[in-house]
Specification:
This is Gti1/Pac2 family-domain-containing protein. It holds the Pfam family Gti1_Pac2. InterPro entries: Gti1/Pac2. GO terms for molecular function: DNA binding. With 248 residues, this protein is α+β, with helices and mostly antiparallel strands. Helices cover 32% and strands 14% of the residues. It has a domain of 156 residues. It has twelve helices and six strands. Strands 1-2-6-5-4-3 form a six-stranded antiparallel β-sheet. It is globular. It starts with 6 loop residues before the first strand and ends in a 22-residue tail after the last helix.
Length: 248
């Protein structure tokens, strides 16, 4: 039976991710329970989102058949960019084409904050595929179980408004996020409250937990709200990199 994607759209924020995880837990959206077969890898396209539970699926390392750059940390996510090939640009090529690279990769350095939020801080040391995919991943721990979200998009599709976010879809945005999804995580950048009141309503927190939850959310929300795409390089790694490493 062909594998079914969990969601089709763009995962913009950590809140979007938690909405998808919760929707999967409630049976609103499907998780995948096995690896992609080789013939299915062609189905990976801009807008594809997969969620899997490591124990349930037996997936220890996600593979999709594409060639990716090394990861970069972008807020609470890992970002990868699709490459034209597996080799680094050699030193001679890099030197001879430095002026050309300035033009080829002008999008990287002359873009808006919005565009930089989509591609991360990957450099021209790697030859990115023109119009290639970007992979964005995030993992959480829930009661000792690792949950993983893998999403794909192109910069163009997001900028042109072709991909909806979970927060913009009423059926998903109305999902209440349960405490164990929210409280058990130690996110690098605390969750943003892009829309404070709606977000509070999404949290399924009892009166006994509300005070603690409030303290956990605190003013740290302002950090990601003000800098939702901050490219963090601190030594505090809280997102597992072993799930979505470059294909070998």
């Amino acid at each position: 039976m062909p594998i079914t994607e969990t969601f089709h759209g763009f995962i913009e924020t950590t809140t979007d991710t938690l909405l998808i995880f919760e929707a999967c837990r409630q049976g609103i959206l499907p998780k995948i329970n096995r690896r992609l077969q080789e013939r299915e890898r062609g189905a990976v396209k801009s807008g594809t989102v997969f969620v899997f539970d490591e124990k349930e699926s037996g997936i220890k390392r996600w593979t999709d058949g594409l060639v990716w750059s090394p990861s970069r940390i972008l807020g609470n996510f890992l970002i990868y960019r699709e490459l034209d090939g597996r080799e680094l640009l050699d030193e001679k090529t890099s030197n001879l084409s430095s002026m050309s690279n300035n033009r080829l990769y002008s999008d990287e350095y002359k873009t808006s904050d919005r565009e930089r939020a989509l591609v991360g801080s990957l450099t021209d040391t790697y030859k990115f595929k023109k119009g290639g995919l970007i992979k964005k991943t995030l993992s959480i721990q829930v009661n000792g179980s690792s949950q993983h979200l893998i999403s794909y998009y192109t910069k163009e599709d997001v900028l042109n408004g072709k991909l909806a976010t979970p927060s913009s879809i009423p059926e998903i945005a109305s999902v209440q996020i349960s405490p164990d999804l929210f409280m058990q995580q130690n996110f690098r950048i605390p969750l943003s409250l892009e829309y404070p009141e709606p977000f509070n309503k999404r949290l399924s927190i009892s009166s006994n937990d509300s005070s603690a939850a409030s303290r956990r959310r605190s003013s740290a929300f302002y950090m990601e709200s003000s800098y939702p795409y901050m490219d963090a390089y601190s030594g505090c790694m809280i997102i597992r990199e072993d799930v979505c490493l470059q294909e070998t």
